Amino acid sequence: MTSDAPEPPEVPLALRLLGPPPQWPYSPPEPPSGPLPPYSPPPGPPLWPHCGQGATSADPVGCIGIRVGDHTACLAHLSEADRTAYLAALSPGTDVDHRGTRFHPELLDQLLAALRDPTSGQPHIGAAQFERASFSGDAMFGEASFSGDAWFGGASFSGDDAFLGASFLGDATFGGASFSGTASFGRASFSGDTRFNGVSFASDVRFFEASFSGNATFQESSFSGYATFGGASFSGTATFSGAFFSGDAEFGGASFSGNAMFDWVSFSGDAWFGGASFSDSVGFGGVSFSGDAMFSGARFEMASHVGPLVCNKQVILDVAVFQQPVTLEIAARQVSCARTRWASTATLHLRYAELDLRDAVFEYPVLVATRPTPFPRSLWPGVLPESGLSGLEPGVRLSTLGGVDAAHLALHDIDLSGCRFAGAVHLDQLKVDGWCTFAVTPTGWSRRFPWRWSRRNTVIEEHHWRVRTARDLDRAIARGWTTPPQDAPELKPAAVAALYRQLRKSMEDGKNEPDAADFYYGECEMRRHDTTRPRGERALLRLYWALSGYGLRATRALTWLGAAMAVTIAVMMLWGLPADDPGPTTTGRQVAVGQKISLTTATPEPVNPSGPLTERVTAERFEKSLRVVINSVIFRSSGQDLTTTGTYTEMTSRLAEPVLLGLAVLAIRSRVKR
């Protein structure tokens, strides 16, 4: 088909893919919820003089390949003689324009052979325009050099395509292209800006050790197979916003010197960023991970904000380094920060996660807090969807602090019921704020302790110790003590007591006296069971525990006080009070009339009661006994005449009962002190 009408002005495909400029005020569209459909070219004839062969009534356009020179056909439809002449006129470094052309493997080999540099033995192409070209079979551009801009926008690759080691000295545009087979760009170098926005990769794609010197854009691209960018280097801004990875994605060892934008990326498989280096700001806002998100050994040098992101499995930040103040917002089942180093302040807002801080390094204050509500979506109204985490409790559970210097760590609204504190240092400086919960003792009846009913906060290490030292392991577990995992260290009571002592100091510094009292109880419990301590100290602790629960159980002290008073009253009624209150007796004699009279007044010894014991239990004797006991409790003497037994009983009562009263007052004060 020919036409004498002037050709419309040509608009580069990359600009057409970007669409019209936004109108202000700008209202962004909804973020993609799945892979975008492959790019489909606009209907009608292309914007270049095209071949038109094969046009029918059903397809009036026909072949859209651009005409070659003065010919009316594209390279694929040229006659054999004309094609041979055209290829013979090419030389290494020549610009080529084969937009819309349909290449089969033999035709592409002929074109690349004509452009092969005899010195390097590899194809050398100047500016290359392959927009909307189609490549059936394998397209082998391996080791090819493009000294000008390379345009592959809207092209389709049906087979395995090799750009392995290719060199793009100008801009490279693949926007809207589709790759049906494996796309290999490993060790390729892109000196200018690179655009892969809207590209559809139906199979595996390999960008391992590729070098991007300019800006690299993969916005809204779809990766259906395994995608690897391992060892790739991005010197400019790398944009993956809105991309969709159906398979596993690997960015291990990649280097991002400029901004790394992964906002609203969807990873259906596992994502590896292990060893990646982010030298500038990063964007992971709205990212969703259906599998694991692994950032082991990654370096974040300038990142100020990571997230909010949602991961259905675990986010691994082991050995990662954060150089600047950063805020992490993560909703995931597990978050592992083993040996992670924060070289500046940090805030971790988490949801649903079981957090592992084993051997983490905090050089500056770090806050770990539970986010009570879902994270908001950036730019768009509403909140991030958390369908993969539905049914779970949104609270955060800390699993271990082993090997951590907790001097700079602050916890807010964290579940510490399963946290292992063994191995951490400076726990006395740990800041526990908000609604943080600890493990509690089992409650209910047991054969050994039939009276136990009170609950107290504990560390999980005490649970582990009690299960390990229980005479009947099954009974200890059935009562509610937690079984230790296989990797849990076997601690002695002295080590558990040290944990309680440090955490008690932390609670006291935070003005949390009631919980500090629970940890004092736990410390005394471990000291009581510590066989390395002197027997006298352990006996004293056992007596202290039995009488008042280490001065923390008011009910126990009051019970003993009531029992002691009842015994004292009974002893007084039965043996302590005399049979009758003796009256004073005055005796004397007169020596002579008119002289002084000498008189002597004496009180006879109290007479021990006699007769049946039941006759001694009277209201009068009870009232007197009660008066004696009450005065003894407040450390006063009643002034009542007593028998020898009663005198010693009162002395004992005046010593023991005020102590029991004081222990009860001390226990009440420990629960209400602020």
Question: What gyration radius follows from the Cα positions, in whole Å?
Answer: 43 Å
What coarse outline follows from CA principal-axis ratios?
Answer: rod-shaped
SS element count, helices: 11
- Give the overall average pLDDT: 84
Q: Tell me roughly what share of residues is in helical segments.
A: 10-25%
What is the tally of beta strands?
51
Number of domains: 3
Q: What portion of residues belong to β-strands?
A: 15-25%
Largest sheet: 28 strands, mixed
Low-confidence stretches: 1-27
Question: Termini separation (Å)?
Answer: 93 Å
| Structure classification | alpha/beta
Strands, helices and their partners?
Elements (H helix, E strand, L loop, with lengths): L12 H6 L61 H10 L6 E2 L4 E2 L1 H10 L9 E2 L2 E2 L4 E2 L3 E2 L4 E2 L3 E2 L4 E2 L3 E2 L4 E2 L3 E2 L4 E2 L3 E2 L4 E2 L3 E2 L4 E2 L3 E2 L4 E2 L3 E2 L4 E2 L3 E2 L4 E2 L3 E2 L4 E2 L3 E2 L4 E2 L3 E2 L4 E2 L3 E2 L4 E2 L3 E2 L3 E3 L3 E2 L4 E2 L4 E12 L4 E2 L3 E11 L4 E2 L3 E6 L2 E3 L4 E2 L3 E5 L25 E5 L8 E4 L1 E3 L14 E3 L3 E4 L16 E2 L1 H10 L3 H7 L13 H17 L3 H16 L6 H14 L5 H23 L8 E6 L6 E6 L16 H15 L10 H29 L2
Parallel strand pairs: 1-4, 2-5, 3-7, 4-8, 5-9, 6-10, 7-11, 8-12, 9-13, 10-14, 11-15, 12-16, 13-17, 14-18, 15-19, 16-20, 17-21, 18-22, 19-23, 20-24, 21-25, 22-26, 23-27, 24-28, 25-29, 26-30, 27-31, 28-32, 29-33, 30-34, 31-35, 33-36, 34-36, 35-37, 36-38, 37-39, 38-40, 38-41, 39-42, 40-43, ...
Antiparallel strand pairs: 48-49, 50-51
